[in-house]
């Protein structure tokens, strides 16, 4: 007999894994279909995501956050996306593991995406700067965080009003992305 926690854990794992598997489709020829498929299950996916956040299931969050972020951005659900990532980032403040820090840094970048779309600018840059500071944490010294850094810099390059800083952030993001392939 399964407990309620075991059922919720399995539900969360299933739907977060489903989101992770859709990431490739979201960036490819099946984008429209993938968005529709996520739309059909979005309530289950949100419930699964919130459970993973509540129980600090870092691996599930790291694997599924991009699909959830792209879905909210590309469907124009900016306030929902912002609320989702604000709550998620806040819930992981005390997590100090390398994987947790990398995930929180990237969550801040996703939060910045929606902050930029909803509020246009300045706060989004601050969120990216917070994410970059997290990547400097001692727990990440022996960890390759270039993928998260490139993503954060890309988002920083999309935000704010200072063209020079935006260009510099995008160029650095591109350089890191090329380094890691």
Task: Summarize the topology.
Elements: H1 4-26, H2 31-54, H3 58-74, H4 78-91, H5 98-119, H6 122-134, H7 146-158, H8 163-180
Keywords, separated by commas or semicolons:
single chain; 181 residues; mainly alpha; 8 helices
Care to describe what's here?
With 181 residues, the protein is mostly helical. It has helices spanning 4-26, 31-54, 58-74, 78-91, 98-119, 122-134, 146-158, 163-180. Helix 7 (146-158) packs antiparallel against helix 8. It is globular and about 60 Å long.
Uncertain segments of ≥5 residues (pLDDT<50)?
none
Instruction: Kindly provide the radius of gyration, computed on alpha-carbon positions and rounded to a whole number of angstroms.
Output: 16 Å
Shape: globular
Mean pLDDT across every amino acid position: 94
Cα distance, first to last residue? 46 Å
Biggest sheet descriptor:
none
Fraction of residues in helix: over 70%
**Structure class:** mainly alpha
The count of helical stretches stands at: 8
Q: How many β strands by DSSP?
A: 0
Sketch the topology as an H/E string, one letter per element. Answer: HHHHHHHH
